[in-house]
Specification:
Radius of gyration: 17 Å
Number of domains: 1
Low-confidence stretches: none
Strand content: 15-25%
Strand order of the largest sheet: 1-2-3-4-5-6-9-12
CATH architecture: Alpha-Beta Barrel
Order of helices and strands: EHHEHEHEHEHHEEEHEEEHEEH
Helix content: 25-40%
Number of helices: 10
Number of strands: 13
CATH class: Alpha Beta
Largest sheet: 8 strands, parallel, barrel
């Protein structure tokens, strides 16, 4: 099982290393293919006043230090094509944010590196149409046909993170998981799926209590991995706190997900 986890954004060197240290169990557990996730910049925050991160240069230095100290494989977001070259020197997976999942220049630039490309499904997207985003990466890498096997071979993942349901709410249509799994291995982002966009007076709210229910449902539906943003204290997190799972809860939930996956 692929497991992607870490803080939403790099808040400080101290905080990111505290969280990284707490996730060592997953690196050592052979049942998981673990990737540490943290963003150097959150470019799509609701408000101009919201914390974005340390920026590209400082953020990549800290991510490289995490990699050196813990041996983790790394995942981070990219927002602009010009960021790709520098990011590719540090991380193993480049993540295309949901709002940018159709951004051709960004997808092609990421595909021109050796990194795995994880494309998050836009909250506005028909899951059937995600095959075209996958195909942009595959064609850039010399493959003309979209399939689960080709995406796995050429390093493409798709991530489900919920769909807009009116204003200020997301829902997860579990049908999207088998639909997108025809095109690529599918990761379920259980933390962003519980967001309530625009409900926090200039910030995004959410209901973290729903994370285990959605994650277990996705495991029963059949997915290739999970994405969880986590923190030692979500109440003080500088981004996405209401949607995070606490570090101590993540270990318990991950064991249940393994059991469900083994069962099916």
């Amino acid at each position: 099982m692929i497991l992607i986890s870490g803080p939403c954004v790099i808040e400080s060197e101290k905080n990111v290393f505290q969280i990284a240290k707490s996730l060592e169990h997953f690196q050592e557990e052979e049942r998981f293919e673990f990737y540490f996730k943290a963003s150097y910049d959150k470019a799509n925050r609701t408000s101009l006043e919201s914390y974005r991160g340390p920026g590209l240069e400082e953020g990549l230095k800290l991510l490289q230090k995490v990699k050196d100290d813990f041996g983790y494989k790394l995942l981070t977001d990219i927002h602009e094509s010009h960021q790709v070259k520098a990011v590719a020197e540090v991380v193993d997976v480049m993540q295309i944010p949901a709002f940018l999942c159709r951004q051709t220049d960004l997808l092609v630039a990421a595909a021109q590196t050796d990194a795995i490309v994880n494309i998050k499904k836009g909250q506005f997207m028909n899951p059937h149409d995600m095959k075209y985003s996958v195909l942009k990466v595959l064609k850039t890498r010399g493959c003309e046909e979209v399939s689960f096997e080709n995406a796995k071979k050429y390093g493409v993942l798709l991530t489900e993170r919920g769909s807009s349901f009116g204003y200020g709410n997301l829902v997860v249509d579990m049908r999207s998981l088998p639909i997108m799994r025809k095109f690529a291995p599918v990761i379920f982002d259980a933390t962003h799926s519980v967001q309530m966009p625009g409900s926090g007076n200039g910030t995004t709210g959410g209901d973290a209590n729903m994370i285990p229910y959605l994650a277990r449902s996705a495991a029963a539906s059949g997915v290739d991995g999970f994405f969880f943003e986590t923190h030692f204290d979500p109440s003080i997190a500088l981004s996405d706190g209401p949607n995070m799972i606490k570090l101590e809860q993540l270990k318990v939930l991950s064991e249940k997900l393994i059991q469900i996956t083994d069962l099916i």
